[in-house]
Amino acid sequence: MNRLKLIMTALLIGGATTASAQGIMGGHVTGNVQVDGQMSHADSTIGSQDVPEKLLMNARADILYTNGDFSAGLRFEMYEKPLLGFDAQYEGEGLANYFVSYNGERLSVTAGNFYEQFGSGMILRTYEDRYLGLDNSIRGLNVTLRPIDGITIKGVIGKERTYWFYSEGLVRGVDGEVNLGSLIKSLGESKFRVTLGAGFVSKYETDEVIPSSADPEYKLNLPLNVGASSVRADLGYGNWSLQAEYAYKGQDPNTINGYIYRPGQGLLLNLNYSQRGFSAGIQAKRIDNMGFKADRSQSGEMLYINYLPAITKNHTYAFLSMYPYATQVNGEQGLQGDVMYKFKKGTFLGGEYGTDLHLNSSVVYGLDTTVTGGAGTDGYEVNSGLGQLLYGDVSVEVAKKLSKAVKVTATYAYQVFNPVVENEPGSLHHNNIVVADVAWKVNKKHSLRFEAEWMGSDSHYDADDPEHNDRRAGDWVMGLVEWNIGTHWFVSASDQYAYNDGIGNYYNLSVGYTHGATRLQVGYGKQREGLLCIGGVCRVVPASNGLTFSLTTSF
Amino acid sequence: MKKILLAFALFSIFNFQFSISEAQNAKMPQNITLKTIDGQNVQSSVIQNDGKPVIISFWATWCKPCNRELNNIKEVYEEWQEETGVKLVAISIDDARSAARVKPHAEGNDWPYEIYLDQNSDLKRVMGVVNVPHTFILNGEGEIVWQHTGYQDGGEEEVIEKVRELLK
Amino acid sequence: MKKIFIGLIGLLGIIGLNGCDKIEPEEYTVYDGAVVNWTDITTTVEPVQRVYVEKYTGPRCNNCPLADVTLEGIHNDKVVMVSINHPTGQGTPYPNQPDMRTTGGNEWDKYFGINAIPTAFINRDRTLQFQGDMSNIVGAINQALTEEPIVAIDLHSTLENNTVNVSAYMHFEKDYPDQVTLTVALVEDSLVYKQLLPDGSMDENYAHNHMLRKVVTSYWGTPLPIEVKKGDGLIGTLEFLLDSEFVAEHCHLVALVSDKKSRKILNCASCEIGK
Asked: Which residues make Cβ contacts (< 8 Å) with residue B48, sequence separation at least 6?
């Protein structure tokens, strides 16, 4: 059986790539293929497990046929067995997604699996993240109408993908966006920029029996139709821009909020100023009970209809992203500030090549709530103050070119992390992090990159309670050397070591080969879970101990 | 047996990939909705350069190699434009988390490029991009003639070489 | 231009008004079934052990008629049968055919995790689950009938206009340590609609019997207001409206006395409506 699957994969991938060479009936076949493999063995210090199958493999091929305004696509996925960190429900293989689509100048129609977003996504966003194993594409119908320049109207209907299945709930939505500058000539010629939008999403799901928390003889009178709407504005004047979106979700008792009837609300504000060589911005976000899923009884990361990204900066250095903040869909309020400044060439701080300064800070608190009941009540009331501190960080990054060949980036960050955001017990961590990153272009063909990182924390590993050690920070050092040979090859070696906590070395060796849009990377070592950027590409990796390989190609 | 088949699968990809990488000229998709950095919806057909080549670079504010690539190209961009008339269009794949930072980020870095937002990765998906950075070169007819994934210091040399070849 | 604006706003408005259910706070929770009134009695009830057979079936299930043949063969007044239409897959009704799926039946189906039909349980005992081939069920039913009853049940009903009054007389023959519930359900016989047969052909006029139409009490039963001791007796009475689509002459009531936690059936009874 397994053999058959492998043959099918091989033929499909091979066939797709062959077809792309010829083109069918005047159209074109394009797409991409990705194969990730992992051979991991147990290591209790890092929490990796033995893999009885020896080899775990995720493979997928996206194949798109385009002929003028018409296109059709399908995606084959195979998880035999899924890589560590991927949900076991992915196991299996088959045609995961497919669609046919017409994309005209004024009208776009897609039937089948589609990805769509209304505004910032607070009420609807279907997307996929292949490294996180997320895909909530809707299978149904998606229509976009652009009746005149400056107006976009979208409509969606369908069911959401969850692993190999589709949601019980039916998702429907409409969204409209108007760019006033395109409609009103005098406005278009002024310094003002105004785009307004509004959307509405409704989910229908059949009834089920959920007992009331107060009296199990009573069941919840569930709303079968749950609606969410949002209004938004994108305003600009000269160097200033302001984006604002407010979302409201009607009664939606579900597993995430504990089956309460309180309506949900979300507010997102972005104010930015920018000019050549300088920018400053502030972002504010507040959400209250905004978890909106296609199936009310599902927990976990799948089946979200809406998208609520974290308000914090997406850090990419290993120690800065060791404890990333995760959005608390039931309630949070936060701020982020960001400043970039370029010291010009020839000034005192700019030196011969200029200096870049980047400051960023964010802070997130929970909501201050008073609980008024459980399932089958309004749940809680929100008070005006702040709830508990969930996350905070400040980072300063200075990048300076020392000579034509050498560029140094130095980063300092201070971080406060509350394990509650990962649903883990424990007290706040306070971490200090320093990163030095040196890129040296040795000659036309060779370049080297060195990275040294340090993290000091007041949270340490506990030998008596190893189960929760992944939520304790520890004191860390890390070194990385990356050697790029031409544009084809790279070799990198790194080691992370918790010097006060005695949990061994996280070493890693990687070799990569890139040819055009094809890339093969083979690594060996112990890998912490986190966002990893090596050899020019960033991706999220799960904990493992052993050999990994990854092949991607676009055609 | 399993391993042999796996090897065959991998081989078949490489084999075909290398044999076709420059043989076909799919057109750049025309009617995908993007946003300008001022928040206006536009169709991807706006990406053109009056019959001259276009470099399309997919990037994100949080992607360090992308930023290195775009910063390094900035140093030589004026020379490139004078020599070849090429235009670089940078497509940000930042989602709602950082999309509002795209304009300040680009201006703060003093990038001279044409920039569009692909917030829900619609163009990225249609163009088969897996990871960023991912760079395409379009010829004067808007056909994709070359692509490359990843960035290593000095990689921009290869990009301009390919553009020069187009003009021969 | 203006027309497009008005059209867009109108469209948003229409969907906005219809796409969202608003529930008032006093209606957040609803009683899960008909209200049961309890009265103590001292009279005894004839102690008869009956057996409850719960069968999951569907019109697109070609093997289900075989199970019907087996079960009809042993049906008598000591065997209480309820057929439940599986909510998905082979349970999906054919186009323009009656839909026999019920909210209560779906809940039971979900609880037992039914993934293939026909499946039958004896007394909701997971160890007495039969799937596909029902040849072993006869012996198991006969075995279950030999047990000493914990509770004796006698079920009666009256029908006036469309109101059904149900009285379930219960007398406990033994102590029982856990909480006990009473479930009353309505089943209907002689429902004629399409059924796939074992040979793959379609019977356009298959008569379906014992089909669950409605769980009258809450789906998993209303708890008895007593800690059960030997010799206790009580009547549970309730009333409900008979839907006009049900044919009263073809309907039966089924009473189940079960363990609240394990949901196993201690004993059961059945009666025609109005008797």
From this structure: B54, B142
**Cα–Cα dist A307/B98, whole Å:** 13
What is the distance between the terminal CA atoms of chain C, rounded to a whole angstrom?
70
Q: What is the pLDDT of residues C25-62, one digit of tens each?
A: 888 888 778 888 999 988 888 899 999 999 999 999 99
Number of domains in chain C: 1
State residue C14's pLDDT score: 59
- Cα–chain-centroid distance for residue B24? 17
Rounded CA-CA distance C91/C85 in Å is 6
Look at residue A104 and give its three-state secondary structure. Answer: coil
- Contact at 8 Å (CB) between C151 and C268? no
Q: What pLDDT band is residue C16 in, cutting at 50, 70 and 90?
A: low
* pLDDT at residue A13, as a whole number: 52
Tell me, what's the pLDDT at B17? 42
Contact list, A377 vs chain C (CB under 8 Å): 25, 28
Read off the pLDDT of residues A159-215 as tens digits, 9 standing for 90 and up: 999 999 999 899 999 999 999 988 888 888 888 999 999 999 999 998 888 888 777
Percent of chain B with pLDDT over 90: 58
Q: B 126-165 residues with CB below 8 A of A? A: 126-134, 146-155, 157-158
Are A340 and A291 contacting, i.e. CB atoms less than 8 angstroms apart? Answer: no
Token couple for B11 = 């081989």
Determine the structural domain holding residue C62 and report its residue range: 35-272
Pairing of strands A28-40, A331-343: unpaired
Residue B50 clears pLDDT 70, i.e. is over it: yes
Task: Say how many Å lie between the first and final Cα of chain A, rounded.
Answer: 30
Only one residue has tokens 């669950």, namely: C212
Asked whether residue B83 is assigned to any structural domain, the reply reads yes
Asked whether residue B16 is assigned to any structural domain, the reply reads no
Q: Does A297 touch chain B (CB under 8 A)?
A: no
Q: Is A132 left (phi over 0), alpha (psi -120 to 50) or beta?
A: alpha
Q: Is the CB of B23 less than 8 angstroms away from the CB of A21?
A: yes
How many residues belong to chain C?
Answer: 275
| pLDDT tens figures, A104-131 | 989 999 999 999 999 999 999 999 988 7
Q: What is the DSSP letter of A262?
A: P
Q: What tokens does C195 get?
A: 């059924």
The number of folded domains in chain B is 1
Q: Is residue B125 part of a domain?
A: yes
Work out whether the CA dihedral A465, A471, A475, A479 comes out positive or negative.
Answer: positive
Predicted local distance difference test score (pLDDT) of residue A207:
84
| Maximum alpha-carbon separation in chain A | 78
CATH number of the CATH domain containing B99: 3.40.30.10
Q: Which of C208, C242, C192, C259 is nearest to C52 (CA)?
A: C259
Residue B123 lies in a domain: yes
Has the ipTM of the complex gone over 0.95? no
Q: Which of A64, A115, A234 minimises the CB distance to B122?
A: A115
**B 19-48 residues with CB < 8 A to A:** 19-21, 23-24, 26-27, 29-33, 38-41, 43, 45
Interface of A with C in 357-376 (CB under 8 A): 376
Q: Is the pLDDT of residue B23 over 50?
A: no
Residues of A in contact with C222 (CB under 8 A): 217
In tens, the pLDDT along A430-465 reads: 999 999 999 999 988 899 999 999 999 888 777 677
Structural domain containing residue B60: 25-167
Instruction: Identify whether C23 is part of a domain.
Output: no
Q: Alpha-carbon distance A122 to A138, whole Å?
A: 16
- Amino acid type, C180: V
Nearest 5°: phi and psi at C93? -70, 150
CA atoms within 13 A on the CB side of C179: 11
Q: What was the pLDDT predicted at A23?
A: 46
What is the rounded CA–CA span in Å between residue B9 and residue B4?
A: 9
Chains C and B touch (3+ CB pairs under 8 A): no
